[in-house]
Specification:
This protein is 17% helix and 18% strand. It has 241 residues and is an alpha+beta fold. The chain is globular and about 50 Å long.
Length: 241
């Protein structure tokens, strides 16, 4: 049995089940459900850190995400591979429309799953670690994301970590938007620390149309009231980007 990894909001299942799923790299609006599964735990954390634009270890405090180990389809080795340049495969949100169009082409040809390089991990950073006279970095390995098209209700998942946070090591593995923090980094960090919401979403499963909490219920990370914002949608995992 082949398995992959997802991070997610602890309140929700590990797979999306509805069509009304916010778009991400390999699917557009109304094209869900689409499930994104990474080939390593570091890859799953990298997706979260990249989307949340977290660079500073201090911003790891208070993160409480569930890590799922998820069964992959038996025919996953037949997953279609996109034909795109590296600038599109690894780019930021501006590259999403091109990736979405390529995914539509593959779906029209009968693809049930897509396999692509992880945009969130730097080259070689799916390597993991070894115990060899102490803890050491393993040989380099490039990360992958499997994009499962459809709900995939028959696949099993196991919650390996209920309320976890990435390690400081994970920060060094991430291909951040813009590659490295720029001149505006401190301003963005201070905004996070002061409780100002910089993004509409926490994990790209966040959609105000799927609000399941009463107004005034505290945010899962900061504890602040989120009356003015949306809430996580019915899915719970990563959206690769």
């Amino acid at each position: 049995m082949r398995v992959g990894f997802r991070h997610g909001d602890r309140r929700f299942p590990f797979f999306w089940e509805c069509e009304d799923q916010p778009p991400a790299r390999w699917h557009g609006a109304g094209e869900g459900p689409v499930q994104y599964v990474m080939d390593s735990v570091d890859g799953a954390w990298a997706e979260f850190l990249r989307q949340e634009e977290i660079w500073d270890p201090v911003d790891l405090a208070g993160i409480a995400r569930r890590i799922w180990v998820v069964e992959l389809p038996e025919d996953i080795d037949d997953a279609a591979r996109p034909r795109l340049d590296d600038s599109e495969l690894f780019g930021g949100p501006s590259s999403y429309p091109t990736c979405q169009e390529e995914a539509r082409r593959l779906r029209s040809e009968g693809a049930r799953a897509i396999v692509a390089p992880s945009a969130a991990l730097l080259p070689g950073c799916a390597r993991g670690q070894l115990t060899d006279s102490g803890l050491r970095e393993a040989p380099d390995a490039d990360g992958l994301v499997w994009v499962l098209l459809g709900p995939h209700r028959g696949l099993r998942g196991w919650a390996a970590v209920d309320a976890g946070a990435p390690t400081e090591r994970a920060l060094s593995l991430v291909r951040h938007f813009g590659n490295v923090p720029g001149a505006g980094t401190e301003k963005r960090r201070s905004a996070r620390r002061s409780g100002i919401e910089r993004r509409q979403t926490i994990d790209l499963n966040f959609d105000p149309r799927h609000d399941r909490r009463a107004p005034g219920q505290p945010d899962r990370r900061s504890g602040r009231d989120r009356r003015a914002g949306g809430q996580p949608g019915p899915g719970a995992g990563i959206q690769a980007g």
